[in-house]
């Protein structure tokens, strides 16, 4: 029960919901309806919030490394995660493909295959963490022996080089499905996320030393998110790096700074904020469900538009968040509800 992880998980979850609310909200309204300055502002906020998904990679590996640092991985390690994480991913992949059957049966089944096998919906994150589950199973003994001062720079170089390649290159004309690979599929292979995995592993494995490191460099991590946010916005608005996703090279540093900032701030709290503890427990289901409710409300908005300007983004955020939580509560009353939208997490218990 590490309260810092509860906060990171909840903030990461809320950031993703807000990010997607902004994305759909801006797409649904014209600049005239929002106002040009409002559009630029929310577009910039969306860019800053891209730390959400990579933060979950860090959290996932941190928890595994911390939980099993003094004991062997149990035989049911992968089986448990298949049951509680992969099955909901598969079911929701099918669920999000249902509207595509309106375009034809073949289109619908093609979308199901894309969602499940190449993560062609927002649940692609699950395919990434399962790659790292396998890496942890295969290499955790080696990682424990290898020096973090060697592994972390190598992981950063691999990760940064991989993203730089796709950020600044175009697909070759001769490559079949090259455009799709450059626009979407390159998100899924673990090379675009391996640095977050490595940082999460060593932060969890050496938690006490990591906590001391955070406190020692607290000034850097307090101002860090401001500096990296400014860097992101400068590179984006200047046209130097126009990629609009979490798969930007500069997000590597931005995610690290935001994660460490939250770690430091939370470590100084005497108790865990109840709201963040609550969101953390429902975060997996919210992650899977929120886009459905954003799409649902947006479809209604297209039929019955209201002149509410940028407040529409706030409405999307609140509605998708609360509707997702309500659905999670109802579905989990069924014995096998967790297999559809994931289980509700255990409440935080203070170690003191």
Automatic annotation (TrEMBL):
GO BP, one annotated term: enterobacterial common antigen biosynthetic process
Main location: membrane
Domain of life from the UniProt record: Bacteria
GO CC, alphabetical: plasma membrane
InterPro entries assigned to the protein according to its UniProt record, in alphabetical order: Acyl_transf_3_dom
Keyword Cell membrane: yes
Keywords: Acyltransferase, Cell membrane, Membrane, Transferase, Transmembrane, Transmembrane helix
Membrane topology: Multi-pass membrane protein
TM segment ranges: 7-28, 48-69, 81-101, 121-139, 151-170, 190-207, 219-239, 251-272, 284-304, 310-331
Protein name: Acyltransferase family protein
């Amino acid at each position: 029960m590490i309260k810092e992880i509860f906060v990171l998980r909840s903030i990461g979850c809320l950031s993703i919901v807000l990010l997607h609310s902004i994305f759909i909200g801006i797409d649904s309204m014209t600049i005239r309806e929002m106002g040009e300055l409002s559009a630029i502002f929310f577009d910039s906020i969306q860019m800053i919030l891209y730390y959400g998904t990579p933060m979950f990679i860090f959290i996932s590996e941190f928890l595994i490394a911390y939980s099993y640092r003094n004991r062997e991985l149990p035989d049911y390690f992968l089986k448990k995660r298949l049951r509680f994480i992969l099955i909901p991913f598969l079911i929701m992949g099918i669920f999000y493909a249902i509207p595509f059957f309106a375009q034809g049966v073949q289109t619908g089944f093609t979308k199901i295959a894309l969602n499940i096998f190449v993560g062609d919906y927002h649940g692609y994150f699950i395919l990434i963490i399962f790659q790292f589950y396998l890496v942890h199973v295969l290499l955790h003994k080696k990682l424990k022996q290898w020096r973090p001062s060697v592994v972390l720079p190598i992981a950063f170089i691999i990760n940064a080089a991989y993203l730089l390649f796709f950020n600044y290159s175009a697909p070759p004309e001769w490559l079949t499905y090259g455009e799709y690979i450059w626009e979407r599929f390159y998100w899924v292979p673990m090379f675009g996320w391996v640095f977050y995995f490595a940082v999460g592993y060593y932060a969890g494995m050496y938690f006490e030393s990591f906590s001391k490191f955070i406190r020692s460099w607290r000034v850097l991590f307090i101002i860090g998110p401001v500096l990296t946010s400014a860097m992101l916005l400068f590179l984006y608005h200047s046209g130097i790096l126009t990629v609009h996703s979490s798969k930007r090279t500069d997000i590597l540093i931005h995610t690290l700074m935001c994660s460490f900032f939250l770690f430091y701030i939370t470590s100084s709290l005497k108790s865990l904020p109840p709201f963040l503890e609550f969101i953390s427990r429902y975060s997996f289901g919210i992650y899977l469900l929120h886009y459905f409710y954003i799409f649902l409300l947006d479809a209604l908005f297209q039929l019955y538009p209201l002149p509410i300007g940028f407040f529409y983004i706030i409405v999307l955020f609140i509605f998708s968040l609360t509707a997702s939580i309500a659905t999670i509560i109802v579905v989990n009353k069924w014995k096998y509800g967790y297999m559809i939208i994931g289980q509700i997490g255990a409440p935080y218990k203070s170690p003191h």
